[in-house]
Amino acid sequence: MSAAAAASSLAQAAPAQKPTGKKVLMKIGTQNGHNDELLRSCAAFGVNNICSGLPSNKIDNNWSTESLIKMREKVESYGIKLDMIPLPLSSAYITRAELPNIMLGKSPERDHEIDTVCEIIRSANKAGIPAVKYNMSILGVVRTESTKGRGGATYSTFRYAEGKQEPALTEAGRVTEEIYWDRITYFLKRVVPVAEEFKTKIACHPHDPGMPYDKGWRGVNTVLGSVEGLKKFLSIMPSKYHGLNFCQGTVSEMLQDPNKEIVDVIKYFGSRGKIFNVHFRNIEGKFLSFRETFPDNGDVNFINCIRAYKEVGYDGMLMPDHVPKIEGDTGGKQAFAYCFGYIQALLQLMRMEG
């Protein structure tokens, strides 16, 4: 089905919507790297904005201004804009993190790592790249045993009650709410002023998934795993350059009734200009018991969500994320292509509604 046909079908299925008079400012994007094969596919799919992959898996000359300029120019040679790069602060488990001492709170090592982050922000600005994204993760992305979904596809799944918290503590030891906030604050107070000086947006991903407030997971209280936690995070260093890599899937995982609640959360953060990037993925389930689906067969109505982004004037990227696994689909290429087409159809629908 073509994007136009899909948009027409969606329009017929969606409740009638009065024209808002607002322009569609958001665009489709991806974060799956910047090699030539991906860039050719993105150009063909009309994915004209991307976040790159890591320039390097270690801190070396690939993070310099000159190297970032070359990377941007390569991306632009395909007619694509490099809107964002990732900092070497990923969602990996703490022992696999590129700059682990920031989250371990170990000084003076963390100070050297924060200096590295600040230098990358400066280099990104000088290279003409307007934003960076990052995680403040100790646990990484926690999941339990996968389950089968539509057509036999494998869905990433989390059931808190079935999880094995072994060993009882991570290498970080006991990390209480107070300790976690202290480490986050230490980082933000040093990095946000640099982001402001160089007018570079820094977009933080929530903790995936949210955990029980009083129990956490393996001795770690995940403070960015709730909507209230994200509000507090943004209040620590108020700045228009300090915001969220708003993973809609992860935020849905924090909620008791995602389909009912997520639109209000989008409007809260979006109306305040705090959504810098969106991971546009769906889930089936709720807080502490969910699985990640294709965008059209989860519990959350994506038409209502994209209307909310339009209403608040969101102008960043909508990215597929954590796609289900299909047998024989190496690297998830088919699954991502499906998601790209689905998002393109939704964007066309928003333009049709006026």
How would you summarize what this structure contains?
The protein is an alpha/beta fold and 354 residues long.
Walk me through the structure.
- The protein is an alpha/beta fold and 354 residues long.
- It has one domain: Divalent-metal-dependent TIM barrel enzymes (TIM Barrel), CATH 3.20.20.
- The protein is built from 11 helices and 13 strands.
- The strands form 3 sheets. The chain has an 8-stranded parallel β-barrel with strand order 1-2-3-4-8-9-10-13, surrounded by 5 helices.
Defining traits:
single chain, 354 residues, alpha/beta, TIM Barrel, eight-stranded parallel barrel, 11 helices, globular
The end-to-end distance, rounded to whole angstroms, is 23 Å
The number of strands is: 13
What is the CATH-assigned architecture? Alpha-Beta Barrel
The DSSP helix count reads 11
Output the structural class. Answer: alpha/beta
Overall domain count? 1
Shape: globular
Give the SSE string.
HEHEHEHHEEEEHEHEHHEEEHEH
Which residues sit in consecutive blocks of at least 5 with pLDDT less than 50? none
